[in-house]
Design brief:
Number of domains: 1
Oligomer: single chain
Distance between the termini: 35 Å
Helix content: 40-55%
Order of helices and strands: HHEEHEHHEHE
Strand order of the largest sheet: 3-4-5
Strand content: 15-25%
Structural class: alpha+beta
Number of strands: 5
Largest sheet: 3 strands, mixed
Length: about 150
């Protein structure tokens, strides 16, 4: 099953139709996975239960893979969604975006709130959907009222 359809949870529930739209528009989407590292949305994957941890991967491997992917495709901008305190964010902050040709790299992270294990992934999916619909603005709020912080990755 394609990676983006295999995954469940708040993000994918909130973002499913927008992920499909982004795929139809040939946008580049990379999924960070505990079991597979970096995936493209349509890559088939099996069932697994593994939380993503940077320490589970050889130092710099995923950072280099990300950089090589964007270089190969000539990408110059990046929009990422992850909680600021997670290993996903740590990975994104570890990539040499400037050296890979990306001049416009941003991490979108939701404010910290109680219940974030449920609210944050759902809000990230909603923010992704808003981005794809070109409705993600500085005053955007999730259905739970969470605001999003844009953090430059350079």
């Amino acid at each position: 099953m394609p990676a983006w359809r295999r995954y469940g949870g708040g993000f994918y529930g909130a973002a499913a139709s927008s992920i499909s739209q982004a795929i139809d528009e040939n946008l580049h989407i990379t999924i960070v996975s505990g079991g597979y590292g970096l995936l493209l949305t349509d890559e088939p994957i099996g069932m697994y239960e593994k939380v993503f941890r940077c320490a589970d991967w050889p130092g710099g491997l995923l950072e280099r893979a990300f950089a090589e992917y964007v270089q190969y495709h000539g990408l110059t901008s990046l929009r990422a969604f992850a909680a600021a305190s997670t290993d996903y964010s740590k990975l994104l902050r570890g990539v040499s975006w400037n050296e890979s040709g990306v001049r416009d790299a941003w991490l979108f992270s939701l404010e910290r709130v109680p219940g974030a294990m449920v609210k944050s992934p759902r809000a990230q999916g909603e923010a992704f959907a808003a981005l794809i619909k070109r409705e993600l603005t500085a005053d955007w709020r999730s259905s739970d009222g969470l605001k999003i912080d844009a953090i430059e990755l350079h």
